[in-house]
């Protein structure tokens, strides 16, 4: 095992080098460490804290994120610390009328899993960190703070302070990814500004552990009451959360006092029913960074964007970031793709995450209305029809590694094949070229060499649900990326050759695999 590997506290030796340094070890940083470790890259993670933050924070992730966890080989482990959402999220007015519902399914949704999951963040982080220990090529340095980063032709030089003994050493990395949160040092060093998308509101977050059975809804409720906007979250069997909007003039310290908090939720739960775990005031923001990459430095997660929690997409966005970034770092580090491939990270991800932030802000406008006249008009508009049911958007990526009209550039669903396997089990963590056997055999050898160069899985005549989809969509072939986004579809050999030419591969190292198979 390498010196200071995993959770060792000793400082790394002077001028040790890795392919990728990750600054910050929250969910995004830990997910990236798993993806890069699985691919065989040498990785060093630096985290200033000694362990997982013990109190609740994020409580929700969606089906696409669970699919990413599955790709890390963590289906069983993550499933053990989460529960599938059963009946969506209900937006209810002051009269108790349901205005709209975020739909979903606890059965097999578009990603081959449930649409939504709820969890306790410390437990999920423990799973992700434990999984990193599978990889001797990944070193985790807790109680180590990155204080400076400089770039040179070969990469980046990090100054790292061991907070346990005060020792400071230098570490070289091919690339540095800042997963270091809203107050990101990496973002400051990059000089990336934040664009304000317009929502800043203080809310009290109140978490409890139930001590006995209480008659509470088995779904999350957004109480769109102008007298006191509030969210009641069903997290797990024994965990509940209330998020309570502060009204003008309210003192954050005063409203956080236990007696005040209990009075605000007394119609649902009392100290006899539950133990208070945390009560704290947070300001919900909607911001996005301008410049997710500068040379060898990149941003992911909260360092690149922050969203109001009304869609439960804060952590999800960070996990999507690293799923997009990981395979690109692998290709560039292995010399399979030009460094310019990393420019597609921000161009693809920013419009995608912006779509979720914009929807969260619009939902915030519905929830946070305190003007009774405005709320009455809102209720009237919804009352004129059945409660609206909406599902998570599936926005397209911005410009990058995809070609053609939608669904190209969108995340591809996970169908069953003729042999009963779900798609991801058949293709692994690779590019995938899927199509009619005759068409796949009709392309030139140079195109097949491109497929080998990116380590693509080639799948002929898949049949099953995927075969039906291809027939309906007149797609005789398609190409998928390692992150399950669709490069595009083709109807003949010439179109497939043109689509293959969009793969971001240099002429070198034909046949080198892009990613390892799932653990």
Structural notes for this entry:
With 519 residues, this protein is of the alpha/beta class. Among the domains are: 16-81 and 115-194 and 288-358, FAD/NAD(P)-binding domain; 401-519, Glutaredoxin (3-Layer(aba) Sandwich), CATH 3.40.30.120. Helix content is 29%, strand content 28%. It is built from 15 helices and 24 strands. Strands 19-16-12-15-14-13-5-6-20 form a nine-stranded mixed β-sheet, with helices on both faces. Strands 1, 2, 8, 9, 10, 11, 17 and 18 form an eight-stranded mixed β-sheet that branches. A hairpin with a 2-residue loop joins β17 (293-294) and β18 (297-299). The protein is globular and about 70 Å long.
Question: What keywords describe this structure?
Answer:
Glutaredoxin, 15 helices, single chain, disordered C terminus, disordered N terminus, nine-stranded mixed β-sheet, FAD/NAD(P)-binding domain, 519 residues
